[in-house]
Amino acid sequence: MRSGAYAASAFAAGLIFGLGLVISGMANPAKVLGFLDLYGRWDPTLLLVMVGAIAVGAIAFAVASRRSSTLLGTAMALPATRPIDRRLVLGSLAFGIGWGLAGFCPGPALVALGAGKLKALVFVATMVAGMLIFERLEQSRARTPSPAAAPRS
Length: 153
Prior knowledge:
single chain; 153 residues; mainly alpha; 6 helices; globular
């Protein structure tokens, strides 16, 4: 498959996703923070967006799990399920805290950045910094043998 087809499909998927975020208001941090404000003026619209996304995702994963190749002809590579572990819980907590503080998660932050929002620039810069720090820690972790793998004397 040509790289042009991949680029075109990635562009189309990103454009549709971005438009969906703008139309639903999810690129607006005030809308997200309104959803998280359970004791103030709670805004349930994000819940409706989440339920819709889960429904579409569930259908897409059900269809994809029955296929051996993607629509572009490459091998289907679905993520394997893994148990809930300490890393997943800590990562989820970090994501939730950041989401609650800023009102952004990565997708809407990129949309808001494209719209020239300064708050989104700060969020994306710190998100990228966090990704780089994580990558460095993972590289260091991969080079350091675990105590269980160390030879016994």
